[in-house]
Amino acid sequence: MIDKFITDEKAELKIGGKVYHLPIIVGKKGEKAIDIRSLRAESGYITLDSGFMNTGACGSEITYLDGEKGILNYRGYSIEDLAEHCSFVEVAYLLIHGHLPSVTELGGFSEQLNRHSLIHEDMVHFFDGFPSNAAPMSILSSMANSLCNFYPETTNPLETFDITAARLISKIRTIAAFSYKKGIGYPLVYPRYNLSYCANFLNMMFDSTVKPYLIDDVVVDALNKLLILHGDHEQNCSTSTVRMVGSARGNIYASISAGISALWGPLHGGANQLVMEMLENILADGGKYRKYIDKAKNPKDPFRLVGFGHRVYKSHDPRSRIIKKTCDDVLKAMGMAGDPLLDIAKEIEEVVLNDSYFVERNLYPNVDFYSGIIYRAIGIPTDMFTVMFAIGRLPGWIAHWKEMWDDPDSKIGRPRQIYVGPRKRKFVPLEERR
Ligand code: CMC
Hints:
- By secondary structure, this protein is mostly helical.
- It has two domains: 2-65, Rubrerythrin, domain 2 (Single Sheet); 66-415, Citrate Synthase, domain 1 (Orthogonal Bundle).
- 49% of the residues lie in helices and 7% in strands.
- It has helices at residues 39-43, 79-85, 88-97, 103-115, 121-124, 136-150, 161-184, 197-206, 217-229, 237-247, 252-263, 271-284, 289-297, 318-333, 340-353, 356-360, 368-377, 385-406; strands spanning 6-15, 18-26, 32-34, 63-66, 71-74, 77-78.
- The strands form two sheets. A three-stranded antiparallel sheet has the order 1-2-3. It has a three-stranded antiparallel sheet with strand order 4-5-6.
- A hairpin with a 2-residue loop joins strand 5 and strand 6.
- It is globular.
- The mean pLDDT is 95.
- Bound molecules: carboxymethyl coenzyme *A.
- Carboxymethyl coenzyme *A is lined by residues 236, 267-269, 271, 296, 304-311, 361, 363, 366-368.
């Protein structure tokens, strides 16, 4: 796919008097890259870029992100428009199929999501094997991987891709809600045919025979927005993991399971849970947030102000602005406008945005800073915040997996390294080793 964007322009790299001419690639939005794919074969040199700070891994048509300007578009549509006007299911369709669905296409997709919302009853027994305090992300990644045994792909997974995508989106939501009910020892609530995707999830989470759950449109709307905002974020850690696993032509369930595991980390999706724990600690500490800001600024202290900073956004994270507004709206509608955690969060943001340490390092609130306050308000337990992120990111992972499979230029992911270990060691038999 990317080869179509190679220009006639060349970069010159001079090593030891010899000049290498490297093709220049220019993307649709004018992003420039130097194509080094032939460099090692021609010169013997590799390029070193730990953490992939400046490495393009592929061409992609899914998401455009401008970190300097704070722009995020899915398939050409601004995140602001999509969050304002669409449901999560519409955006999932957009990410996966490349265009916004017509009424008929949306109806067909919703019907597929409904049809595939149950998990095989044998899988329900898996939950019994986990301790009741098991981390929901570990359950989710294990169950996602197990799906391949119940719904195997054909030899050409693209033939059944549409059904597999719908299965994943629908069943991951069911698994997430079931894991919560199992964790608290309550009977499972099965998905209902007549509820929207988000309403169904909330109902599976919170309905019970003791107290029926009243579905509130404000909450459903907020959940739609949160999931949309998490839908895709180009080559982040978990998406790159999905592509990496898929590049070995592994099945999609294994790739998604690996993505869930990657997302779990505290520097990635796990940050939303840590933000809430941090805010709760600050509240329990009498609201003394300045102490925590000082800790975050101290180079000798590993503590970081979670919910701030981003590898790519260097002005603001457009998602955090929408989430902050949604947070205000939801809390107001639920009669929780004076939530002390929200007040602390806003005060921290205010101080940080005017503190030279954070300003000089371009550290702004990210997507995780306010999302937890909304999740908490709607009753999602803290240890399920990252699961919510995974449900939202799922269509993005699926879209990237498909794009990679479709791309004739895609190769197995296999970075190089610079070996820095011992040169050569003389073998010592076990009995002579000390
Ligand atoms: N609090 C205090 N200092 C920070 C923070 C923070 N949250 N984030 C970065 N820094 C400092 C860091 O110490 C370093 O300072 P110095 O130059 O003096 O050594 C500088 O800013 C650059 O940090 P970095 O770690 O080199 O930046 P990165 O691009 O590798 O990391 C990040 C990005 C998101 C991992 C990082 O900002 C971070 O750890 N943030 C807190 C965790 C968090 O909120 N993660 C969610 C990210 S958004 C959702 C997602 O993508 O999943």
